[in-house]
Amino acid sequence: MKINELAKVVGCSTETIRFYEKTGLLFRPERGANNYRIYHKKHLERLLFIRNCRALEMSHDEIKTLITIMVNPNNQAEHDNAHQLLQAHLQHIDERIEELTNLRQQLMKLQNHCHSSNQSCGILQELTEMSVTVKSTKNHL
Q1: Is 50 exposed, middle or buried (0-12, 13-18, 19+ CB in 10 A)?
Q2: Among candidates 36, 37, 34, which has minimal Cα distance to 26?
Q3: CA 21 to CA 117: how far, in whole Å?
Q4: CB 62: neighbour CB atoms within 10 A?
Q5: Residues 94-122: pLDDT tens digits?
Q6: What is the distance between the alpha carbons of residues 67 and 49, in angstroms, rounded to a whole number?
Q7: How far is CA 102 from CA 4, 29, 107, 129, 136, in A?
Q8: Residue 136 dihedral angles phi and psi, to the nearest 5°
C-alpha cells in the first residue's frame, strides 16, 4: 500500500509516518519502480504499535526501547527492561498527576480572588503578587 493509504488506515498523517521512518521508529519501506514507498502488513503493525504507545503518552525513546524488546522476544533481560520502563512511566504519570493537581489548586485559589464588584481585578492582582513554583522555565518564558 502507498503512504497515504497507510496513513488513512492508522489514522495519522503522512508526515508522521515519514517522521517515524526518519527517527528509526518505523523501518524504511522498499520503493516501487515509480519510486513510491511500498508499505506492507509489518509496517501497519509497527505503526499501530507506535500509535498505541503514543496514546499512552510514551516518549519516542521509550517506544524505541520497547521495539528493541519486541525484536528480541527470547531475551529475558529485555523483558525485565520492559517492566522497568513501564514502572518508570507510571511514576512519571503519578508525578504529572500531582503537578496538575497542584496547578488546579492554584487556579482555584486564583479564581477565588475575583472581585467583580470593584474596579480592580483580584485575579490580576494575585497573579502579580503570588509565588509560583515552576518546574522548568524553558517552556514557560
Answers
A1: buried
A2: 37
A3: 58
A4: 19
A5: 999 999 999 999 888 888 777 666 666 77
A6: 9
A7: 43, 46, 9, 18, 15
A8: -140, 135
